[in-house]
Amino acid sequence: MPKEENLAVRNALLAESVPERTSFPVPSAGIHPGLVPLIMKDFGSEVVVNAGGGVHGHPLGAAAGGQAFRQAIDATLQGEPLQAAAERHEALRAAIDAWGVRES
After folding, report:
1. Half-sphere exposure of 58 (CA within 13 A, CB side)
2. Are 96 and 83 a contacting pair, CB within 8 Å?
3. Distance of alpha carbon 45 from alpha carbon 47, whole angstroms
């Protein structure tokens, strides 16, 4: 789905004028830890990250895939670039080596 369409859906569902939030955005397809900063920039922190391949396709296994996502989320929430966080976290470093980082 083109980014413009994704953001239009986000704007319709999460607009400030809507008194209650009735759903969460759920970006999907090709999601990996290196996309976390972009996802959170586009959709905020109240988002469901549908990350099957980014977890189970991780070069160090599924457990490391889950860890890499948690590490990417924590770093992003703290305003830390993923590359800096990857210096301390093997799982995140392996994910970035495999898939890269996309922040815009």
Report:
1. 25
2. yes
3. 6
Q: What is the pTM of this model?
A: 0.78
Contact between residue 38 and residue 76 where contact means Cβ atoms under 8 Å apart = no
Would you list the domain boundaries of the chain? 26-99
8 A C-beta contact, residue 99 and residue 31: no
Q: Which of 24, 47, 35 is nearest to 98 (CA)?
A: 35
DSSP E strands, the chain: none
56 — pLDDT class (breaks 50, 70, 90):
very high
Q: Phi/psi class of residue 30: alpha, beta or left (left: φ > 0; alpha: ψ in -120 to 50)? A: left
Q: Are 27 and 6 in contact (CB under 8 A)?
A: yes
